[in-house]
Amino acid sequence: MSNVLTEIKDHAAVLKINKPKALNALNDEVLKDLGEAFAEAENNDDVYVVIITGEGKAFVAGADISQMKDLNAVQGKAFGVYGNSVFLAIENSVKPVIAAINGFALGGGNELALACDMRIASSRAKFGQPEVGLGITPGFGGTQRLPRVVGAAKAKELILTGKTIKADEALEIGLVNKVVKPEALMDEAFALANAICANAQIAVRQSKTCINRGLQTDMATGVAYEAEAFGLCFATEDQKEGMTAFVEKREKNFKNC
Prior knowledge:
The structure is a single chain. The strands form 2 sheets. A 6-stranded mixed sheet has the order 1-2-3-5-7-10, sandwiched between helices. A 4-stranded mixed sheet has the order 4-6-8-9. The protein has helices at about 30-40, 65-70, 75-90, 110-115, 140-150, 150-160, 165-170, 185-195, 200-215, 220-235, 235-250, and strands at about 5-10, 10-15, 50-55, 60, 95-100, 105, 120, 125-130, 165, 180. The model has no long low-confidence stretch (mean pLDDT about 95). It is of the alpha/beta class.
């Protein structure tokens, strides 16, 4: 899968989209390789966290316009459904996913970042949903995830104007978690990944699932999900280890079971 390079380091899998000459634009082949690379990381028990980034000066500069321009309505819908299937797999993974946004995150690139759980941005990164300027809507979840992340009014402003914003504004509106110098981006992403990896992974995964499910429902149903996950954790060895280590004032040694 030359379109996506994979490296595993300290329980973190780095998936790097590798089409720098095309600014990592998403076409069928890139989406297929990204989906397959992510599935491999998802099924690797040694991987606790996934980091997605891009090669060169772009994270992902958008979907491949040269592929899209001649699609008809049926083909356009099929392309959107396919892209969404890959991004939904990332969003719904039990493993936390960090976007390390090294450059342009436009259109499908911003939508890919939104499908991740957390977003660390280089100060050189730029964000936007420019699709209306091309005569289309966002097609890979932008109309749905962006309002959930930054609020409806700001999402409508970004989508309906198609404007591009810099990393500092992305931080201000809550689109990214943190902005760092370009040379510090991957170190910061690994630091966040390592902080997650140090915890009990069953609890981490149950927590992510509760948050995602709760965002789609009412409070009463959401806290019912949480109570179920909370109780399940008391059946794990990690709960016994974590609480015993706390009481005994010693380091924890989680086994993720």
